Amino acid sequence: MDPYQVLGISPNASDDEVKHAYRTLSKKYHPDANINSEHQAEYTEKFKQVQNAYKTIMDNRKKGFTNQTYGQSSQSTYQYQGNDQAAFQDVAAFIQAGRYQDALHILEQIRNRSSIWFYYSALAMNGIGNNATALEYAQTAAQMEPGNLQYIFLVQQLQAGSGQYRQTQQTYTSPYANMANCCYSLLMFNIFMSCCCRCY
């Protein structure tokens, strides 16, 4: 949903105009102002949409994004500054928000096609429904870094034809984030097995 449409303003609106629209609509749809209204549930939902729209617009403006449209046809004016780590963080945030085209737009600007580039590209491609390319990218990431369990898991999920790939209880941050926990678990398992074997 286009946040500018929710607030009833143009994408070219100034920050003050955005804030004015937000305050006006928040006051109108605030749950406390509609306690006995027959449209209370509808207004409460509208109030949540207004809150989310305002947050989305202001967050994007702080990051320098000035999207004119939202959804699958969205095009961001994001300019890659040569910092891969920062770019991948923005890619992860867009994927988490379901804004796959924006994620792909950033990825296109990164020249270093590392394993993590193929991993995020696979997630974004899968998000827009291009599952064949998503699988190809995921396999490339896994081939470049055979020991990365997160890459392997993504390949398996895509090969299983499970449609939209989802990670449970995890944001799309660096795939290395959970490797330490995984290694620790394997280490503890090996120690446990060694102790058991010595008992016989």
Automatic annotation (TrEMBL):
SUPFAM superfamilies cross-referenced by the UniProt entry: Chaperone J-domain, TPR-like
Keywords, in A-Z order: Chaperone, DNA replication
Record InterPro entries: DnaJ_domain, Hsp70_co-chaperone_J-domain, J_dom_sf, TPR-like_helical_dom_sf
Domain J as annotated: residue spans: 2-74
One matching Pfam family: DnaJ
This protein's name: J domain-containing protein
